[in-house]
Amino acid sequence: MDFKKVLIAVDGSENSLRAVRYAAAILDGGRGYDVLLVHIERLPERDMFPDETSWSGQCREHSQAMRDFLDRAAAELEAGGLSAGEVCSQYIDSCAARPEGAEDCSHGRNIALEILSIAEEGGYGTLVIGRRGVSKAEEFLFGSVSNKLIHHAKDRTVWVVS
């Protein structure tokens, strides 16, 4: 694994942005890094909306907000000294609303394992994620992406930022 290949998984939260800023500070404008910002789309449940139109509208809003967040996160890394060529981002659409032409899609069943799959395929040796701040009860019932990453990542460094 190449530890200068850094995958930063983001979800749009303040802790996620804090993780990006932390990575920028640690990498401190060093050269030779390959940083991938990745967001795996997790759409709201269709049943929570009265009709397809309102659900689709919410999905589009969420998608645009996350794409804007990825741009903001890339700007934070560049402001921290990384070059634009060292930073790229990837938005992985949900298979439930996969747009025409999307190469990959997420089934949303296990975000942590999807992150690890991307890391494995890309040879990323360092994973960075913000802690979501879920309660112990929520973590027990639903799990935690950061917790699953820690337990399933092999031969990789995992930075969990609060």
SSE ordering: EHEHEEHEHHE
Q: Please give the CATH architecture.
A: 3-Layer(aba) Sandwich
Q: Estimate nothing, just give the exact number of structural domains.
A: 1
**Global geometry:** globular
What is the CATH first-level class name?
Alpha Beta
Q: Rg, please? A: 16 Å
Instruction: Give the termini separation.
Output: 25 Å
Low-confidence stretches: none
Helix content: 40-55%
Strand content: 15-25%
**Annotated CATH homologous superfamily:** HUPs
Report strand order across the widest sheet. 4-3-2-1-5-6
Structural class estimated from helices and strands: alpha/beta
Strand segment tally: 6
Count of helical segments?
5
Largest sheet at a glance?
A: 6 strands, parallel
CATH topology: Rossmann fold
Mean pLDDT: 88
